[in-house]
Structure formats: C-alpha cells, structure tokens
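Posting for a labmate who doesn't have an account.
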Amino acid sequence: MDSNLFSRRRAERFAQLLDEANGGRRHHVRSRADDQLATLVAVGQRLPAAPPAVEMDPEFRTGLRAMLLATAEREGIGAPAAVTTEPSSRRSAADAGRNRLLPAVTARRARARGAILVGVAAGAVALSGISAASENAVPGDALYGMKRSTERAQLALASSDVSRGQLFLDFARTRLAEAAALRGNEDGFSAVLDDMDADTRQGVRLLTTAATQRSDPAALDAVNSFLTGQRRAVGGLLDGASRAERDRTRRSLALLDAARKRSDALRAAIACGGPAPVGSDALGPAPATCPGDR
C-alpha cells in the first residue's frame, strides 16, 4: 500500500466498502483502491466479532486512548460545527441547497473519519499483538527490535522517576533471561550482560536518587529486593560456563555488590538524618558519613 492510503478519497471509499460488507446500501462504483482496501475491510469486519486474545498492558491502553483522542480532535470528530453569520438575504438563498446537501456530506465525512479511526485502532491492536509475541525474543531474532522498542515506549509513558527506575530493573531481569538463552555464544552473552548492567545502573540511580530527595527509604526496598533475587540468578550463570563467560559474569556480580553497598549506606544516612550527599556517580548519590561515625 502506498503512503496515500488514508487520503480523504480512499478513506471515504473504505467507509463505503465497510457499509456494503455490513449489509448497507451498495454503491455501484468500483475504485482502483478496492483491491488494496479489501484486506482492511476484512479486518474491520473481524474486529467486533473476534477481539484479540492478547491482553493489553494498562500503560499501552492509556497511550492508545490518548492517541485515538488526539486523532479524533485533529479530525474534528465530535466537535460542534463552527457558527458563522451571513447576511439574511444570502443565507435564505443558500439554505435550501445546503439543507439538501448537508446530510449526505455529513454522513460521508463521519464515515471517512470513522474509517480513519478504525485504521488507527487496527494498526495499534496489531502492534500490541506483535509486541506480545516479541516478549521471548533474544538478540538475533526478527522481533527483538520490537521488544526493545516496546521497552522504550514503556519508559516514555512512565509517570515518575520511581516508575522508570523500577522499569529499568525489570529490563535488567529480562536481559538476564536473554543471557541465559545465549550461553555458548560468548559475544552475544557478553553484549547482553553489558545491557543488563546498564539497565541495573539506570534503575538503581533513579531509585537511590528518589530515596535521597524524599529522605524516604521506600525506594531502596525495591532496590534491595531486586539485588537479592538478581544476584542469585546471575550467580547461576557461572555453572557450566566457559572461562570467558565466568569472567564476564563476575563483573556483573561485582556491580550488584556495589549497588547493595550503596543502597545500605544511603539507608543508614537517611536513618541518621545525615548531611546531603557529597556527590553522585552511576549508582546515584554518594552518601555523606553520619555524625556518629566520624
């Protein structure tokens, strides 16, 4: 399909074909776009009767709703018609012709705009299905790029640094599962652990920063819970690993140990009401020493 598929004329023809497929009045015309639109018409018929089995993530649902509302606003769906004033003589002369044309024009525009929304929704639902199918993809798989794009979309929709930090830690768990699937492929294994460590640093930094700014250790609880489970799982990669894989795995274990040390130090600083952090690094704020420890 070319890039003009949803031009106004084709959208109106799409609406006509949907009407005909659902038992509406047949239009005795044929467009060159009919063959291209046939697949979308079939999708439009199946959508009400066979909703997708994939369960949408709540954040994806929120993003989809915002996109559809923006499209509706841009296309003027649901907006009241603009009121214009005309001289009474001109208005009375044009009223009869306008009243005859208005119902047909309004109906065509409504169908065209509705067809656009159906197309947008169908595309979004299709993407959600592809996203779900990509969950088990690993580097080198055809759907792996979609998997990472979905993660970036989740980060963009996150409402706070705490939410983003927790997402990064979730992604680090995902990278760990990918690394386990790539054992024996030293280059792929090392690259995935690099990404895992980057996600770990990002998540820990966001959560430790939030805990320090709020003087509340709640965000550190999420960090410690992640570190406990993640260290155990990463340690499992050492079993049966090659020498290169063991060396690379130990670097990830060292990062997790450093993150735990930072989290514990920040928790102690918050508990003692210590001074502001003396600086920050890849793991977030570096706590100052509590007065009683000097």
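Reply:
Got it, the structure tokens are right above this. The mean pLDDT is 78.
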